[in-house]
Amino acid sequence: MSLIVTLTRPGGQPENVTGKLLGGSLDLGRSLGDEGASCSFSLLNAAEPLPLAQVSVSWGSVPIYRGQIIDRDRSNPRGADLIITKPQSSDAVQMLARRLVAEVYEERPAGEIVADLFDKYMPEVAADQAQLQLITTPLTFAFNYVPLLECTRRVAEAAGTYWFLHPDGGLRFFQTYSGSQVEYSPKAIVDGSLRDRVSAGEFANRVWVFGAKQASPGYKIMVFSGDSTVFPLGYEPNYVQVRVDGATKKVLLKENDDGSAEFLVDKKAKLVTAKQEYPGAAVEIKFRPTVEIVDYFEDLASMRTYGIYEKAIKDRTITDKLTARQRGRAALRQRSRPKAILSWQTRDWQVYPGQPVVLSYPSLNTNGVFRITSVDTTFRSLGDDRWDVLASITAEEV
Known about the structure:
Blueprint: E1 3-8, E2 14-16, E3 25-31, E4 37-40, E5 43-44, E6 54-59, E7 62-75, E8 84-90, H1 93-96, E9 100-109, H2 110-121, E10 126-127, H3 129-132, E11 138-147, H4 148-159, E12 162-165, E13 170-174, E14 182-184, E15 195-199, E16 206-215, E17 220-225, E18 230-232, E19 237-244, E20 247-249, E21 251-253, E22 263-266, E23 271-274, E24 282-298, H5 300-306, E25 310-314, H6 321-335, E26 339-346, E27 356-361, E28 366-383, E29 386-397
Parallel strand pairs: 10-13, 14-27, 16-25, 21-22
Antiparallel strand pairs: 1-2, 1-6, 3-4, 3-28, 5-8, 6-7, 7-8, 9-11, 12-13, 15-26, 16-24, 17-24, 18-23, 19-20, 19-24, 22-23, 26-29, 27-28, 28-29
Helix pairs in contact: 2-4, 4-6
């Protein structure tokens, strides 16, 4: 098997540039979620233009990376006879950030939401329908011209799922694992490369969710004496109405006063002022106070074991309690216990993020099933279509 790197410039034909790789080397990275896949290499005396060219990397006939060049640097350290070009490329994840979504979903299964999003806004990416049918958590979202990448992230967080874009052009969106189980024994691991650490950096057993500030659905009524001209409300007011002894008065925001208002609203100072006194009269002020979406969730068993560890999520796009609960519960599931994180090097490199991996390493007393979170692979040409391939794999406890 050999590595094949192909560039297709806008409006041009595919060009095999494998022979132009500087040092005969290429680095490929794959990660879960919106980090996506990366591909790093340099070319000798490559023709222009390169920006927006399509990049395809295959191992034999199997695609292992698809992306697009979004930037490039050129230099000629030895004079005009040698030009080194270093492209910067991104896979289709960067395109998700450039597709804007305007949709409303009410109590729809998370898998259906994702299928609909990609069908409408990025049909060139084929979603794994069998996986999506298993994600049945009912969710509610209102996306007002939100990037598809952010939409996918929000659905995944709320449903407690994971995702990545496969180099075969498909979306993998799954609950726990994606793909077939692989196994690594000490013989398959580069000697001395296994690291086993436990991370509590993101640990939290009480999660607070702070969402948007908005007018409450209900009105509050406060009554004051007309002997004063200043009426403190204690809340930032919205939709203010004023009556004096039952007679409706004209109300404007302080900054919008055109001289015709009888009462002015100062939202920042949380008060209403009158332009004159109304001795002996009752001034009734009706308004909708500004409230913030706030909720919290906790794991009592974890708190009894470890004590209280809190995490605050602040997201002004959360505009209702249901969305706050979805976000908080998903965060709690992922953070309520310390996780073991393993990393190792291997020459058995043809694995992908999301795959379950059985790891047995007796000398570190490591034995169990883990989820692969990233795979970084380095290819080095040995000549005559021979390649040395070394992968660094990271996996987490499930």
